[in-house]
Structure formats: C-alpha cells, structure tokens
Amino acid sequence: MLNDLHSIKKSVQEEAEKAESLQDIQNLKIRYLGKKGLLTGKIKTLSSIPKEQRPEYGRSLNEIKNFTEELLDSKEKAFKASELDTSLQTQQIDVTVPGCYTPSGRLHPVTQVLNEIIGIFVSLGFSVEEGPEIELDYYNFEALNFPKDHPARDMQDTFFISDDVVLRTHTSSVQVRVMEKNSPPLRVIAPGKVYRCDADVSHIPMFHQLEGFMVDRHIRMSDLKGMLELFIHRVFGPETSLRFRPSFFPFTEPSAEIDISCVMCKGAGCNVCSGTGWIEILGAGMINPRVYESAGYDPDVYTGFAFGLGIERVAMLKYEINDIRLFPENDKRFLEQF
Ligand code: FA5
Fold this sequence. Notes:
Strand order of the largest sheet: 1-4-5-9-8-7-6
Structural class: alpha+beta
Bound molecules: adenosine-5'-[phenylalaninyl-phosphate]
CATH topology of the largest domain: BirA Bifunctional Protein, domain 2
Strand content: 15-25%
Low-confidence stretches: none
Oligomer: single chain
Number of strands: 9
Number of domains: 2
Distance between the termini: 83 Å
C-alpha cells in the first residue's frame, strides 16, 4: 500500500517536470488533488485500511499530499510569472500615443436657447402648451381677426395644404385653441416650429417661435412691459435696454414691435443693427377683443397681453451668428461650437 503512495509521488514529480504550460499544471492539480483526484480518493478510503497500518499510512498520505500541493503550487507560480513576462514583452504600452477622441453629442443651439427661454417663463409661473404644425386656417388666421382675403394675411407668406389647412405661420395659432379649453386666468407659453415661404440671411422657411400670453381681469400694457423687461434682462443681461415701437397685428390692439439695444455694439451703432443701435426681437400687444369673441370670453371682463418671439433670432444675437441659414444646415463644424 505504501508502495502505491510512493509510485503516486513519483508520477507527480515526473509529470510536473514534463509540464509545458500553466494549463498542464492545472490539469495535474485536478488529476491528483481535485474532488475525484487520485490522492483525494486515497484519503476517502483511509477508513478501510487495517487499524494497525492506518497511522503510518495516513502520515505518508498526508506527506505526499502536502508535497504534491507545494510542488504544483510552485510550478503554477513559475508558469504565471513567465506568462506575465511574455505578455509584457509582446504587448508593450506606449504611453506617449495620443488618446482616442470620443465625440459627445449635444443639443442643437436652437434647442439650447429654446430650453433656456422656456425655463425662464416656467419660473415665472407660465405653463407650456403645444398646438399642431399642420393647422386649420381658422386658428392660424380667422380666429385671430384675419378675415379671409384680408390684406394682413400677406404679412406672412403661407404654405397652404388646402383652402382651409395651412402649415402654421406663427405660434399665435395656439392662443384660441388654449382659450377654448381653459378659462382665465391664463399664463401660457407655446413654443414650436412655424413655416413661411421665406428665405434669406435672416429668414428661413422653417423656424421656431415662442408665443406667450396672459389673460385675466385688469391685465395692462405695463404688465407686458415688466414681463418682457425681466425676460430680456435674463437672456441678454441687465444692461440691455428695451424699446416699444408702435406696430400692427390683427390680433393685438395696441400692437408693438420690441427692439433691444444692440448686443454687439451696446447701442453705439454697428453693421448688425444697421447703425441704429437697436435690434427688433419680438412682436407683442394687448390681445384684441375680437380674439376673446372667437374663444367665447367676455371682452368686457378680461384683458391680456401676448407676445411672439423668433428663437433663431435670439440665438443669432446670443451667439453672434450672422447667417440664420447655418442653423438648419446642421454642419458638424458649426454645431460643435455650442
Ligand atoms: C408674428 O409672428 C406674431 N405672431 C408675433 C406676435 C405674437 C405679435 C403675439 C403680437 C402678439 P412676426 O411675423 O413679426 O410676428 O414674427 C415674429 C418673429 O419671428 C420675428 O421677430 C422674427 O424674429 C421671427 N421670424 C419671422 N419670420 C422669420 C423667418 N422666416 N425666419 C426666421 N425667423 C423669423
């Protein structure tokens, strides 16, 4: 029986000597020391050895098991060290090679400006509403006091889908839709895309507007002025001045176009503001009683203001961009700058 153990020891030594890889050693570990290994098997049968031979047999078995473990562990270590050496030599890392640039996506500058503006009005208590881009002539024009064939319709070059359906030319189309479904007090903004048959350095056929309107009892022009002043100061800084110029929109009375002091030259006069020191930024006014009639509100009870802002126009001023057509072009070299 002891001879049996000694021959196991001998074969472990021989096989460990012949091993050529880490895998060979791991296989030997399984073969001799694993759950069903040769030495493990001998330990399991220890109780069947005659009592008087058991102590000596047990001692030898233990010795050979320890010997096997130490031998295979040391071989394993040696193979691991040499494998590491080889991989360090073959897979050298050049720490001077420039890193890989991973481009990260970001929001379009128009979306960034739109989100900023929405954030300002939401912080002032306005709720956000949306309307359809393919709109009934009624909400885009008629309900806003543009009767059919009225010359004021020519102010906006319209894409017609049919006689009664248009691509909305402004976000003012959301006004009556919201009023029909809600009662005053209202404090609403309606951002979104609008469409006009229009294209040059400051006009594109699809652009973004943000409509804002407030309706309640006793709303006055001074409320409009205060709100717009606060908004403009937040977007362009507190040093920016505002100027109200009389204008005409069928759905507001009185109407105004609002200019801000030129953000480039601070009002001194430059080619961006055509030497005037002022830049037009939005249209606004007190909501025309005719609009309340369309919505079923009593114009003797309620008053309110509305304003409409071109988002690309704000983005151009904010980022000093001189051609509006750069926004829809989506050239990565342009977009990466924001
Ligand atoms: C309107 O669209 C009115 N609905 C605004 C309004 C709302 C007035 C509520 C009163 C009360 P206007 O046509 O001026 O107004 O357009 C508003 C802004 O949209 C302009 O100041 C300009 O910044 C922008 N805009 C107009 N046409 C274009 C275009 N083709 N491309 C880019 N921006 C444009």
